[in-house]
């Protein structure tokens, strides 16, 4: 059978697209699908050249691959590990990364690495293939998939760094940084910038060094002497991360962050903080007393699921609602650590009338 002509192929594709579009209005996310299609159509009307279309096409393929791999793991807590691809396996940093990943996998987390060698290989080795993801980047040198993730379905090969970074942060509930080079510095500063501006998190960021090492303390000295001293960051911004040279402490920092805090979202003008368990009236009063400075109006209040949330999902978790100023994120992190120190209420404390 002869191959179809370009005109026939185009006609067949047009028919497939038409049938697909006819079915889409019944899709629950039609609003966002239509916006995406509208953007592509507007681009087609512009004088968009071939290179620009290649960027759009490859970006969408990167996103498609990433979404496909993570789809079945969206409700599993994950931790991204960054660090040098050049760290040999006999270095203390490698062993720390391997043990850190192993321990967190035992606690139920999954590990995401860049799929390369060094610290990335240590993370995948420690967690094991079953509890690992690898987000590889196509480079002409240095970056090949490590043997602990190379043949697994949870390996994603990205063309672009920016789509790869998107999935590192989109899918991660915590970030761990080990010593590294320019790439690690890029990941460190981008992560902390997105935390400082509220585009990522709240989530724990832990900087892990070899026992007695000064890599991250030296980095912090730079922040203090060059940025803080010049007024380009605030003292509270230093609360966005933690530094340790101990695996137990690193694991504890991450687990403690999710002791009571579960997640958060904005509903209208209010920040809604979802909790794993409720806290007492006295604890809420303490939060109001200590963190009134980050509110634009009103108080921090306990609430149940809001009507806007119930239209999207059924979520029974207790909540705190506040009019956060969306500026002092370092203080917000301090508040989350504070509420994690409160003892959760028992059923009897929540319903004393049942005694």
Strand content: 15-25%
Q: Which structural class is indicated by helix and strand composition? A: alpha/beta
> Going across the major beta sheet, what is the strand order?
4-3-2-1-5-6-7
- Shape by Cα distribution: globular
DSSP, total strands: 11
Radius of gyration based on Cα positions: 23 Å
Q: Count the helices. How many?
A: 13
Terminal CA distance: 81 Å
Secondary-structure element series? HHHEHEHEEHEHEHEHEEHEHEHH
Structure write-up:
The protein is globular and about 75 Å long. Strand 6, helix 8 and strand 7 form a beta-alpha-beta unit. Helix 10 packs antiparallel against helix 12 (329-341). The chain has helices at residues 6-23, 30-45, 50-70, 92-106, 119-127, 161-171, 182-196, 215-228, 247-257, 281-291, 307-310, 329-341, 347-350, and strands at residues 78-82, 110-113, 132-137, 155-158, 174-177, 205-208, 242-244, 261-267, 270-275, 295-303, 319-324. It has 13 helices and 11 strands. The model is unreliable at 351-355 (pLDDT under 50). A 7-stranded parallel beta sheet has the order 4-3-2-1-5-6-7, with helices on both faces. It is α/β, with parallel strands linked by helices and 355 residues long.
